Amino acid sequence: MTSVAKNLMAGGRELIAFRIGDQEFCVNIMGVREIRGWTKATPMPHAPSFVKGVINLRGAVLPIIDLAARLGLKPAEPTARHVIIVVQVGARIAGLLVDAVSDILTVTDEDIQPTPEVSSDLERSYARGILAIEKRMICLIELDALIDATESEAA
């Protein structure tokens, strides 16, 4: 049995890891609907600064969140190499603009370390924990908190 199968049987979960600048983050794969290439977004008046705009996704209007700006990092300057991770939380769907998707991780709860106390309250509200895997530090982002906070701030 592979380590992936063992982790899944032990109550593990699969995460999609991605890069923003030189930092790595991940989200639960169960919230990801698709990954697509960058499409220029139409800006929306009075939208929060981290919302790049909206795109047409098969007839549906999809808001695009610059995840770097949302997390307090330097806002992205999108190029053809950037990708949009389309996520769904409940009935809400949004696109997260990231630099690149790096891999799929299979982890258990024991692999997730608590977010350090030195983090800002903003970061701790989105970060579910930190994964230390193969000399990499990957921040696990909670989609529920990210999308709910985005909508309440936009309102």
Textual characterization of the structure:
- Helices cover 19% and strands 46% of the residues.
- The strands form 2 sheets. The chain has a 6-stranded mixed beta sheet. The protein has a 5-stranded mixed beta sheet with strand order 3-6-7-5-4.
- The protein is globular and about 40 Å long.
- A hairpin with a 2-residue loop joins strand 4 and strand 5 (60-66).
- It is of the alpha+beta class and 155 residues long.
- The mean pLDDT is 85.
Key descriptive features of the protein:
155 residues; alpha+beta; 6-stranded mixed beta sheet; 5-stranded mixed beta sheet; 11 strands; globular
Number of helices: 4
**Strands side by side in the biggest sheet:** 8-1-2-11-10-9
Order of helices and strands: HEEEEEHEEEEHEEH
Low-confidence stretches: none
Form type:
globular
Please count the beta strands (DSSP E, at least 2 residues each): 11
What's the pLDDT, averaged over the residues?
A: 85
Q: Gyration radius, to the nearest Å?
A: 16 Å
Q: Which structural class do the helices and strands define?
A: alpha+beta
Estimated share of beta-strand residues: over 45%
Largest sheet: 6 strands, mixed
Could you estimate the helical fraction of the residues in percent? 10-25%
Euclidean distance between termini CA atoms: 49 Å
Task: Summarize the model shown.
A hairpin with a 2-residue loop joins strand 10 and strand 11 (136-141). This protein has 155 residues and is of the alpha+beta class.
What order do the helices and strands come in, and which of them pair?
Blueprint: H1 3-9, E1 13-20, E2 23-28, E3 32-37, E4 51-57, E5 60-66, H2 67-70, E6 83-89, E7 92-98, E8 100-107, E9 112-113, H3 121-126, E10 127-133, E11 136-141, H4 143-154
Parallel strand pairs: 2-11, 5-7
Antiparallel strand pairs: 1-2, 1-8, 3-6, 4-5, 6-7, 9-10, 10-11
